[in-house]
Write a structure and sequence with these properties.
The structure is a single chain. Helix 4 runs parallel beside helix 5. The strands form four sheets. The protein has a six-stranded antiparallel sheet with strand order 3-2-1-4-5-6. It folds into three domains: 117 residues, PmbA/TldD superfamily (PmbA/TldD fold); 86 residues, PmbA/TldD fold (2-Layer Sandwich); 223 residues, no CATH class. The protein contains ten helices and 19 strands. It starts with a helix and ends with a strand. A hairpin with a 5-residue loop joins strand 14 and strand 15. The protein is of the alpha+beta class. 44% of the residues are buried. This is TldD/PmbA family protein. Pfam families: PmbA_TldD_1st (PF01523), PmbA_TldD_2nd (PF19290), PmbA_TldD_3rd (PF19289). Belongs to the peptidase U62 family.
């Protein structure tokens, strides 16, 4: 089906809901296709393919709302969606914060068309199963070519495409399509109890932007070999550097803390910090839903609101919560255009392409300035308290002596409090804007490292 067919179907569904007694309604359609392969120790392991198509209807009767969804888009199934949705809305308690986005916030058809073209989210290439297998095989062979690699934990390659369409009773109608490609390799070095594992991967919107299979395999192999013969270290308080591969997890904790729903519930450790400096001067954290070919880019959010690039942290100061319409009304604010939504659930605040802007120092300079400390390349577990900010996670990486990585370490824990960690965070200059959450390598001073 074409996008126009999708929009016609949704407009008809919304119209039926209004005719059946809904004061307002919106409908969303999501469609996806994915295929993938895995290859291990010279042989294919799995070949998968899945397709889905779902439609969701949200109806409002006064200040009551209800949601229904189905993978069946036949006329009879859609009629049942409307009937069940109206009946449910009349039975549920009132929610004074629910409702559609205000019409003046919605994107126009012309603006959506322009943004969709500029975002360039869809590549028409669909690799065959044989081509995906060849990519995974090449990655594994490149890993085995690294001296010291003894086994493979598997390589995988995949392709996906999808589209989203949304229509509301306030006149919004829009849709967009996208594609994505990924390739990953996990290598094992060493023998017996001395084996170590590491990996590399890439994910992009356009196939020609995907890192070469040989590069991904070689990097995975070299990382695994570098971790051989790890040592243990004693407990102490030292600077900790988070490699950019894992530094994005710190932004993930920030994202949860500034989510409007968490703030409204009072379950965020930053709930009273709006307008205050929570990072050092010069630190900027930006969310950009309009980044061309971004993995989480989209021309409008789950309520039809056009998103804009926004600095949630500006010069170290927290400037805004992440808001959809419901959380914005609850907090007495306006939506930031960050509603995230599926066919089966209501909108909720969600970030898109979040990035910590790079600093001016190189990674080598950050290491030289710290003298002794820990360089983290792997984090294990999820020991983070979202209410207090207390942070404790298992880690692996390298011990730093005299400003340089000296030897691999393992079986250690890094701990602190995110409020203190953000204050002492220093970013390097090695940011790559490639994923949904991107960070340069960062150094955090004064963390507790627990070892032997």
């Amino acid at each position: 089906m074409t996008q126009q067919n999708d929009l016609d179907l949704l407009a008809d569904l919304v119209g039926r809901a209004r005719a059946a007694g809904a004061d307002a309604a919106d409908a969303i359609l999501t469609e996806s296709l994915s295929s993938g392969v895995s290859w291990r120790m010279g042989k294919p392991e799995d070949v998968e393919r899945s397709e889905s198509r779902d439609v969701g209807l949200r109806v409002f009767v006064g200040q009551r709302q209800a949601l229904t969804s189905s993978s069946d888009t036949s006329p009879a199934a859609l009629a049942e969606l409307v009937e069940r949705g109206i009946a449910m809305a009349r039975a549920v308690p009132e929610d004074r914060w629910c409702g559609l986005a205000e019409p003046e916030l919605l994107g126009s058809a012309e603006e959506i068309a322009r943004l969709t073209a500029e975002l360039d989210l869809r590549d028409g290439a669909e690799p065959t199963t044989e081509e995906l297998i060849a990519m995974a095989r090449a990655a594994e062979e490149a890993a085995f070519a690294v001296d010291g690699v003894t086994k493979s934990d598997g390589a995988s390659a995949g392709f996906g495409s999808g589209r989203v369409a949304l229509a509301t009773s306030t006149g919004f109608a829009g849709g967009y399509a996208g594609s994505h490609y990924h390739l990953a390799m996990s290598a094992i070095a060493g023998e017996g109890l001395g084996m170590e594992r590491d990996s590399d991967y890439d994910a992009v919107r356009h196939l020609r932007n995907l890192d070469a299979a040989e590069q991904i395999g070689r990097t995975a192999g070299e990382r695994a070999v570098a971790r051989l013969k790890p040592r243990k270290v004693g407990s102490r308080k030292v600077p900790v550097v988070f490699d950019r591969r894992v530094a994005g997890s710190l932004l993930g904790h920030l994202a949860g803390a500034i989510n409007g729903q968490a703030v409204a519930r009072g379950t965020s450790f930053l709930r009273n910090r709006m307008g205050q400096r929570i990072f050092a001067e010069g630190i900027t954290v930006t969310d950009d839903p309009l980044r061309p070919r971004g993995l989480r880019s989209r021309p409008f959010d789950g309520e039809g609101v056009i998103g804009r690039s926004r600095d949630f942290i500006s010069d170290g100061v927290l400037t805004s919560w992440v808001l959809d319409c419901g959380s914005a009304r609850q907090l007495g604010l306006k939506t930031t255009g960050h509603a995230s939504r599926s066919a089966g659930g209501p909108p909720g605040p969600g970030l898109t392409n979040l990035a910590l802007n790079p600093g001016r120092r190189s990674v080598d300079e950050l290491l030289a300035e710290m003298g002794e400390g820990l360089y983290v390349t792997e984090l294990i577990g999820m020991g983070v308290n979202a209410v207090t900010g207390d942070y404790s996670r298992g880690a692996g990486g390298f011990w730093v002596e005299n400003g340089r990585k000296a030897y691999p370490v393992s079986e250690i824990t890094v701990a602190g409090n995110l409020k203190d960690m953000f204050q002492t965070l220093t970013p390097a200059d090695d940011l790559e804007r490639k994923r949904g959450i991107d960070s340069p390598t960062v150094r955090i001073d004064g963390m507790t490292v627990a070892g032997t």
